């Protein structure tokens, strides 16, 4: 792994695949490190000839931590948005999109095919809207638009989202079990997830960089950014939207709304997929990413 300066901050990244391959930049979701993009998926894309870039978003993993900003009040941020006021948040999705643009620039790519999952989908949407010269194609996975009229997440999914579990420094086994319970819920009723791989991923993330306060600032960035539909209507990049039919955290209507707002976007609903990218569906997801790439060509 390596580090560069993007948008004025330090960003940790890695690269896989042939040097001459078309670049694909993967942007991960809320509170998740870049290593949560599975090597099955990264390897699949690399074997197809793409140059695959992963990076840690700000405030997670080994990238810059905004330690001078106090933990935001999520309730205050949500109230400000409902009342039409600018919330008091350390940064917003547009700032995180500028980070991604800085990564593409800093690596000398010029532009790239961008893929985002969940919050990462929101980031790459804003990247395509606000930095169109950096985006060749856009793939938005299990994400949404900020439209306040869309169906909410299921209560059990929200409960695991906001409860980060026991302190792993004190109770590692309990922390891992909490993470596995969350993964089971997020997988939806089909339960497509690999428990052993999930447990290994949770533990690897803890041992690499445990920084839960960053999650709060990222969550505030999502809520504080509000309704982004007007920005999405400005996107010109060829776009593919992917969503699980059984997503309990971001209901599939969020994907439909994303596709409806982005001119010319394709919508693909995957049966059996929840708020995750299970191993059996990795080839399908990679096929759809490649579909966006080919649309750009």
TrEMBL record:
GO molecular function: triacylglycerol lipase activity
Record-level GO BP terms: glycerolipid catabolic process
Top-level taxonomic group: Bacteria
UniProt name for this protein: Alpha/beta hydrolase
Lineage: Bacteria, Pseudomonadati, Pseudomonadota, Alphaproteobacteria, Caulobacterales
Cited InterPro entries: AB_hydrolase, AB_hydrolase_1, AB_hydrolase_fold
Residue spans crossing the bilayer: none
Keywords on record: Hydrolase
Residues in AB hydrolase-1 domain copies: 23-277
